Structure formats: structure tokens, C-alpha cells
Amino acid sequence: MWKFYARIWRNTGKAQIVLIILSLIVAALAAAPLQFQKDIINSLGPDLEVNVLVGLCAGYLGVIVVTNIFKFALNYRSSLLGEDTIRRIRASVYGAHHNPDASRKPNAGTLATIISAEAEEVGRFVGQAVANPLLQVGTLVSVVGYVASTQPYLGAFMVFMIVPQAAIVLFLQEKVNKRVRDRTIVLRHASSEISDEEMKDISQVQDVIVDDFDKIYTIRRGIFKLKLSMKMAMNVISGVGLVGILLIGGLLMKQNMTDVGTVVASISALERINSPWRLLLNFYKELSAARVKFELIVKSSDAFDPVETKKAS
Questions:
Q1: Span 79-114, pLDDT tens digits
Q2: Of 104, 105, 254, 294, which sits most exposed with the smallest number of CB within 10 A?
Q3: Largest interatomic CA distance in the chain
């Protein structure tokens, strides 16, 4: 993995720095709406001051608008970098295929698979390789840190909810990775047989191709089971988190250790950390898949650095 990231940074470092800055800004703003939400809820009551409420709502809206402006800039530049990398991968692999001095050349079927699908997955990943995990981790730290600063017990409970989710994904993802690698190899083989079937005995080739299709189906079935199992476990843990905050928050309110605004903000915080946490776990899955595809591309072709890219504009 580190070699993969070293290649990415060596070829896209300048563009990644811009994405890092934007990610840090968005992550820093993640907890701001929670404070406004807490203050607005606590201000509601018989002694409500309208001018205070209007000011808080205006601030809340302002934070939302500013955050989404920075998110737009981040997503746009990330998408450009990914698309530019896809273009460079395709060009380098195709060029190496027609290089008479190349020692490794994929056949027509494998070349088509690399250019049409594998380059897309690796290139798209490069666009978010650094900014995405930084944004999600930064958001988690920002939100959980805010809740912990306002009510340590609720903050500790949120951290407790994150740990089992990480354990589940780390345990199951390696199994998914193996199946992704196997599926890619079988799909390449099927593509190669299809491209060469006119040069071989048709009946024999058809049997091999159909057998490959059956293998792909079996592999995908295993991937579905693992992915859906992870999703089910994550949903159950999220439900436990919501019930836990309501229970702990209610007990703390009974002891006059917190207020309703903090409990409501904590529920919102749980929803906010669910999104970046799920995206972070999805990123880990994409990293695993992209690394597998990257390794297969390197082994199949003498193309120069598959993640080399020009500066995205």
C-alpha cells in the first residue's frame, strides 16, 4: 500500500496539497452547525428573544453555505484530478502495448479490460486518495471532539460505537479483497478468450468462457454476502448508537448533568459521524480494490508509472 501511495504522491503531490487544504477547512467547519443547533434549541422557551434566535439561525445558515462552497471546490478538483489520471493511465498502457521494445504486452482482451474498467477505478481513486480519508477523519475528530467537550460521557459513547465498526470492516475486507482479485483475473481470462476465439476451436473456447462466467458469478455471490453482512452490522450498530445516546442523555438530564440542546446536538452528531465513518470504510474498500487493480496493471504491461499524471487544471 505504501508503494502505491508513494507513486501517487510523487506524481500528483502538488494537486493533492490543494485538496488537503480544502479538506481541512471542510473538516474544521463540521462541528460548527452543532453548536448553533444546540444554542437555538436551548434558546427556545417563554423567554425567547427573537433577535437572538434570528442571529443564531442566520449564523447556522451561513456556516452551511460556506461549508458547501468549500465542498464544491474540493469535489470539483478531486474529480478533475481523478479524470486526468484515468486519461494518463489509458494513454500509457496503450502506448506501451504498441511499443516494440516492451517485454510485457497484454493481449487485446486484457488491454480492453484495463483501458475500459481498471484504469477507471484506479484513476478515480487517485483523485481522492489523500483528501477523502483526511476529510472523513477530520470530520470525525471535529464532531466527536465537540461532543466530548460539551458532554464527555456522550463523546466517549460515540468513540465506543466506532471501534466495533472498524473491527468488522478490517476483518471482512481482506476476504472481499481476495475475491475482487480472483474476479479480475477470471474476467481478464474470459476477455482474452473472447478476443482470440476466432483463432481457436470454437466449441472448446465457448466451454472455457462459459466456465469463466460461472466462476465470476460464484465469486460475486461471495462478495455480495460479505458486503451485505458488513452493511447489516453497521446498520445495527448505528441503531444501538442512537438508542444509547437517548438513554445516556436522558439519564444525564435526570442528574442535571446536561441539557436537551446537548442531547439533540449529540443525536445530530451521531448522524454526522455515521456519514464520514461509512465513507471512510468505503474508502478503505476502494483502496483495497484499486491497489489490486493497480498491481495487476503493472504486472500485465510495461507502461510507465500507471498513476503518473499532469497537473489537473
A1: 999 898 888 888 877 777 676 666 666 666 667 777
A2: 254
A3: 87
Residue written as grid cell 477530520:
138
H-only helix segments in 151-201: 152-196
User: What is the four-CA torsion angle of 184, 187, 189, 193, rounded to 10 degrees?
Assistant: -160
Give Cα separations from 284 to 37, 135, 287 (angstroms): 32, 14, 5
Q: CB of 20 within 8 A of CB of 137?
A: no
d(C-alpha 261, C-alpha 267), whole Å: 10
Separation CA 205–CA 166 (nearest Å) = 44
Please name the amino acid found at residue 134.
Answer: L
Show Cβ contacts of residue 239 under 8 Å, excluding neighbours closer than 6 positions. none
Cα–Cα distance measured from residue 172 to residue 160, given in angstroms and rounded to the nearest whole number: 20
Q: Please say if the pLDDT value at position 197 is more than 70.
A: no
- For residues 152 and 92, what is the distance between their CA atoms, to the nearest angstrom? 53
The rounded distance, in Å, linking the Cα atoms of 163 and 231 is 15
pTM, to two decimals: 0.71
DSSP symbol at 199: G
Classify 2-300 by CATH class.
Answer: mainly alpha
Task: Report d(CA 224, CA 42) in Å as an integer.
Answer: 45
pLDDT in tens, 35-51: 888 888 888 877 778 88
C-alpha 109/C-alpha 120 separation (Å) is 16
In the Cβ-directed half-sphere of 77, how many Cα atoms lie within 13 Å? 22
Query: What is the C-alpha separation between 280 and 136, in angstroms, rounded?
Result: 6
Q: Which of 80-89, 108-117, 180-189, 213-222 has the highest mean pLDDT?
A: 80-89
Write down the H helix ranges in 197-303. Answer: 202-254, 260-300
279 SS3 class: helix
C-alpha dist (Å) from residue 204 to 190, 201, 209, 249: 13, 6, 9, 68
Cα dihedral across residues 13, 18, 19, 25: positive or negative = positive
